[in-house]
Write a structure and sequence with these properties.
This protein is of the alpha+beta class. The protein has a domain of about 45 residues. The protein has 1 helix and 2 strands. It has a two-stranded antiparallel sheet. The longest helix has 11 residues.
């Protein structure tokens, strides 16, 4: 059995932080200056689709589109 010398040559990974990971992914995917950020709910279209359900068993009969309440139809992400 061999003894691992101190300090270990491979760096010890930092603990995983999901908030930091999410922040880094947002910052890395940020658009160029002057280009508006697309709304994450409607993906920039300004409309969202919802399933229409009818009957006692709530079966799906179609889709209904409506105004995105996150961006109010503009397609741009809210600034605050």
């Amino acid at each position: 059995m061999s003894v691992i010398p101190f300090p270990h040559p491979d760096p010890i990974p930092e603990p995983y932080d999901p908030l930091e990971s999410a922040l880094l992914s947002v910052l890395n995917n940020a658009p160029a200056d002057g280009e508006p950020v697309k709304c994450p709910a409607c993906k920039g279209s300004g409309e969202v689709s919802r399933s229409v359900r009818v009957g006692r068993r709530h079966r799906v009969v179609g889709q209904q589109t409506g105004l995105c309440l996150t961006c109010l139809g503009s397609g741009n992400a809210p600034t605050e």
